[in-house]
Queue: 3 jobs
Job 1
Amino acid sequence: MGCVGRLILGVIAAFAALSPSVVLAREPKAELLETAARVSGLDLSRRIVANPGSAGHDVAGYFKVRNAGAEDLLVGMSCHCADRVELHRIDRSGARPTMITDAAWPIPEAGVLEVRPGGALHLMLMNFDPAKSQDGRVTLELTFRDAGKIRADFVLAADSRAAWSKFEP
């Protein structure tokens, strides 16, 4: 890289340090993209949806729920970006893993439900359309038995595992 290129990068870096709204060419940290999503003692974080880049695919979604109150139950999800959203669990007890669609997932009292890449649980957005995203996010509506409904933005990520790891301290 020549002197002019280094000078330009230096100016951009200095300006970015002064102005957090500047977007650089590299992908920003996921925690900077996430806004608060809370309802009745439930705090949703690490909200990620895999982005295949084109419409018509079934894609996975991930998130974490911290519960400061009594046990609750996630009983449904929806999104205008997909035909439907299912709660999936991978059963690895047999010779071959099988996918099970669950009706609900418990969120333990004063506990955590973690739906993470590589884990047994994931959301499945059926017939996902990334063109319905806005600013690299899609909005999903989660329905809890006791806490009710909450709308939360999920960040689109080409690599879910890498995006999840950006939340690590």
Job 2
Amino acid sequence: MILKIGCNKIIKKRLFGRGFFMEKKDIKKSVYDFYDKIAKEKEKVSVDVDKLNKSLGYTNEDINNIPKGAQMGLGCGNPKERGKPRPGEIVADLGSGRGMDVFLASKAVGDTGLVIGIDSNYKMIEKAREIASKNGFKNTEFRLGEIEHLPIGDNTLDLLISNCVINLSTDKQQVYKEIYRVLKQGGRISISDIMLKRELSEQIKKDPNIYGT
């Protein structure tokens, strides 16, 4: 594998077969298109999302507190449990989707706290705002933006969480720079994500949808 961090023209990851490089803009489009279909409900996961969430460490109480329509089965862990948001804190969730982890964290921070969901897909943001309004959440905000360029001021957050999203970025170094920028001194991060433990098969490497899944 060849990787050059911070390259703006071509992400040099040899993932799609010998000598084939995929441009950054094409990777971003592939990822966006995949999640846009999810947002528009043209595609859904084919598993029982409650069972999946239990396997990832969510409790029955957590699952009962998730508003209808907010969970999509796209996570790979439970960043709230590790991060343990506290009353009165300001928290952000990178790649918040329809807001599942935002709504769970909002219970922990209470009326004096705030949880901000960031997503690059407007349909996701729109749906999350609709769910928040219908269920009376007053301490949540959903903002359109990329995780490489967070719509959050400097030194704002007590805690930043993310659930299986940073792996989708074509510029992870920039993501972590942004995380550092928006955290207060002594702020915390809790990230659930995936990484390769062994080489992918050639069939998977040649599939551009791998970035979205």
Job 3
Amino acid sequence: MLAFGGNPFIGVYSRVSEDVGILPDTYADARETIEENLGVSAVICSVGESAIVGSMCAMNSTGVILPSIATPDEITFLKKLKNVCVINDKLNACGNNILLAERKALLNPEIGKKAEKQIQDVLGVETMRGTIAGIKTVGMCGVVGRKALIVHPKIKESEKKQLKDFFNLQIFEATANLGTPYIGACVLVNSKGALIGNRSTSIEIMKIQEALLAP
């Protein structure tokens, strides 16, 4: 359970992969908690001089996707850690609009073709455009675990089948932070563990744990 300065929407302000975590200076006091619980090296960095790091970037073990509003200093710093893909697209909140796994990425259907090609080339992932629960900001509607995808509870059956086939993962529906369906805004996940917004109920936590421990 975690909050940033009393704010339980930890996925808005931080982004993690298997080895690295990024969080803004505003919430640097959470660095040790992220490192200990998720087994990552956490670094302090903004994106586009903004604290909403989780909304602004997407990341996996291979690289990090940044919007063109990222500053030269931010790009240079993150290049020391991972491959960096800077996309110049009207949808500049990359974390909100891209649901990124190790080898696959679900994109907001409105992301430009040039940006999609960059993502494919730099991160070496297969991409698909789609929605979750009819919502285009797919990065906030889901989180990718080791063997499961946790998604907005109002996902359509057609979307569920499409995502299951594309990611080759089990699909679990869940909320966090007292019924918030935007699970990506509330949870930080990698194969080593999870941090969940501290307003989540015991039932919500159990459902998320069930998904992450899926065989």
